[in-house]
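WARN no homologs supplied; continuing
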Amino acid sequence: MHPTPAAPRFVLRNLPLAARLTLALFLISTGIGYVAALVQLHFQHASPGNALPTPDDAVNIFHGQVGKPVSQLERLLTTGETAAWNGTGSMAAAFTTKSSDWKKQLRSLEKKGQPAEAEQELRRQRDGERLAVIEWIKSGAAKSEFEADAFTMPAALSDQPVTEDYVAKNDAGERVVKIKSIITDRCVRCHSASDGEDAKASEFPLNTYEQIKPRVSATTSSAMSLTKLAQTTHVHLLGFSMLYGLTGLILAFSSYPAVFRVVVCPLPLLAQVADISFWWLARLPEPYGPEFARLIAVSGGVVAVGLLLHIVFSLFDLFGGKGKFVLALLFGGVIAGGVLVHRSGFVDNFLTQERAGTEATK
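OK structure emitted
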């Protein structure tokens, strides 16, 4: 008796054209969506001037600042304005572009005859306010200075301009800054227990010293809260696992050699598990936590490469010669567009301006 020949293996090319077109558009949409996620990652976590988070950024996000106790409010005021406008990003813009009277004061200075220098001058004054609050925090955030609305500026900032409304002289003739008034005008207008302008910010009132005190007390970590870390883990493990599973299954039914499919199809899923494991291991004490945090950039890169392989190889296996030619033109257009954008200097200029804006707030 002759052995029964094995049934031919089902591959993507066996699907009807409509099904293959649907899968192709799904893969392309996934690629575009992942690029959008990288853009969001830049604005949410990358330090100004960097396209994506660096290993040091990962340490700050998942482990916290190494060896430098810092309070939440100090961290929010020293982080550049380009960071996310929230409790884990930056609040420096509360003194400038997001302050209630920014446009009014800017127009007032422009009318004095030097519009080109108006914003620069206004920023120097507002930086004086912000730096005064930071120095008050660093000096111990004394309740007496807050309630008296008088903080003596350190000698190092004696020449720093501060908005006139917040400057006075004490009995000894020393220059003092009205810390309570600054916090009320720049922070409490949103962070108010009763009528804050921002409903979310109102959940964290700063009306009284007792409410401010926990925010100005130095902590050992600026890392993402455990609550947010657990939420992010949940979203990634459920949402992205489904995405990588679908793209991996599509590639699994391609005509490529089995050894290639066995290695590449589950790659993003395995890398994602390692990536999220590093998120949690980064919470370990030094020196182990920071080292695990730095590995996040590596595991995240493997996830990206794995997904790219899923998309590119699956797309080319879906179609014959004509389809491959169309795909080659499509990818060629994407590459050419990327080269043009790079040569235009748009991205480099944006990152340079972002870095310069951050340095101006320091």
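Residues 11 and 254 are 5 Å apart (CA to CA).
OK
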